[in-house]
UniProtKB/TrEMBL annotation:
This is Peptidase M50 domain-containing protein. It is a multi-pass membrane protein. The chain crosses the membrane at residues 12-36, 43-64, 76-94, 106-125, 147-167, 187-210, 216-234. One of its GO terms (biological process) is proteolysis. Keywords: Hydrolase, Membrane, Metal-binding, Metalloprotease, Protease, Transmembrane, Transmembrane helix, Zinc. It is found in: Membrane. GO terms for molecular function: metal ion binding; metallopeptidase activity. Its cofactor is Zn(2+). Residues 49-184 form the Peptidase M50 domain. The keyword Membrane applies.
Length: 337
């Protein structure tokens, strides 16, 4: 599921921060202009800046979550619904879950920090309502309080949106991790994408059916978010199914040729191995599978590190990253002997 190329066409570089390339989609500045048109230049620009910083911290939460659990991350895309970080979690399921949850946890922490100011503010009800907006005025003596109210609002929105169990939102990634672990990769991914597609359509229908007296910008926001998620999951589902059909074509070919070879050469039925031998073989196969998965994971990490060396030089590698490259090099030398 590679969305990078599509996003790159609609993005501009915001520099390299903490060994991470940051890109911003052109839609985000347009969103800030929309804020200015809706709430005035001062409030629109301030909230746009707060939303950008909060989104950036959210995505760096994912990067830090991955790096702290044996993975890595090297790219961030900022878009109107938040951001998309190119991260590679560690091998364990904990790393995958923690990496996905780290972004919303950053927003939740910022909400907790700003909540006391919100609680004592005159804009309390507008701030905690998902589709209302606190029209703060930055009056003398209330600037810091009003800024905290806007910080809470921005992170509150990001938290609520991203915990929805719809791919590619963080809640959807957490659900996908559980499903893949329990049901296998193909079933887990397919079920996640189809669920996200149906929920996105459901959001659009719900938004259109809301009564006209619904407060705030509820109708427009629900329909917009639902439409974006529907289009994304529709595109990803189509790509996944086409890749699956391509793989199945080779699988059918391999099975047919293997079956023909087996029937032409096999003349006798082998004796079924005993219980302990079967247990030992099963254990060895499981061990071999885990080793292969670990090697595949390290190969992915090596590609990331080589790209990092190409962009930032060999000195940019940490001690752990250098050890990983050494292990990979040693393994390749043994294979060539």
């Amino acid at each position: 599921m590679n969305y990078r190329d599509s996003l790159m066409k609609w993005s501009f570089s915001a520099g390299v921060w903490f060994a991470t390339d940051v890109y911003v989609t052109y839609l985000f500045p347009l969103l800030t202009l929309l804020f200015c048109w809706r709430w005035g230049i001062t409030l629109g620009m301030v909230f746009g800046a707060i939303l950008f910083i909060s989104t950036l911290l959210h995505e760096f939460g994912h990067i830090l979550g991955a790096r702290s659990t044996g993975g890595d991350g090297y790219e961030i895309f900022i878009w109107p619904l938040g951001g998309l970080a190119s991260v590679y979690p560690g091998y364990s399921i904990f790393s995958k879950l923690f990496t996905a949850a780290s972004g919303p946890l950053v927003n939740l922490a910022l909400c907790v920090m700003a909540f006391p100011a919100v609680y004592h503010s005159a804009h309390y009800l507008d701030t905690i309502h998902p589709f209302m907006f606190p029209n703060v005025e930055f009056a003398s003596g209330q600037i810091s309080s009003d800024l905290l109210v806007l910080i809470f609002k921005a992170n509150y929105i990001l938290f609520l949106v991203n915990i929805m169990p719809i791919y590619p939102l963080d809640g959807g990634r957490i659900v996908q991790t559980f499903l893949v672990d329990r049901l296998g990769r193909d079933i887990g991914i397919s079920l996640t994408l189809r669920t996200g597609l149906y929920m996105g359509i459901g959001m659009m229908v719900t938004g259109l059916l809301l009564p006209e007296q619904t407060p705030g910008q509820t109708v427009g926001m629900v329909v917009l978010i639902g439409a974006i998620l529907t289009i994304f999951n529709m595109q990803e589902t189509t790509q996944f199914e086409s890749d699956e059909l391509y793989d199945d074509a080779f699988l059918d070919y391999d099975i047919s040729t293997s079956y023909a070879s087996m029937t032409s050469t096999q003349t006798s039925v082998k004796k079924k191995p005993g219980f302990f031998k079967r247990w030992k073989e099963k254990r060895e196969l499981k061990k071999e599978k885990l080793e292969q998965e670990q090697i595949a994971f390290e190969d992915d990490q090596v590609e990331i590190l080589l790209d990092k060396v190409h962009k930032q030089g060999l000195d940019s590698l940490t001690v752990a990253e250098q050890h990983l490259l050494d292990r990979a090099s040693s393994r390749l030398r043994k294979q060539r002997r």
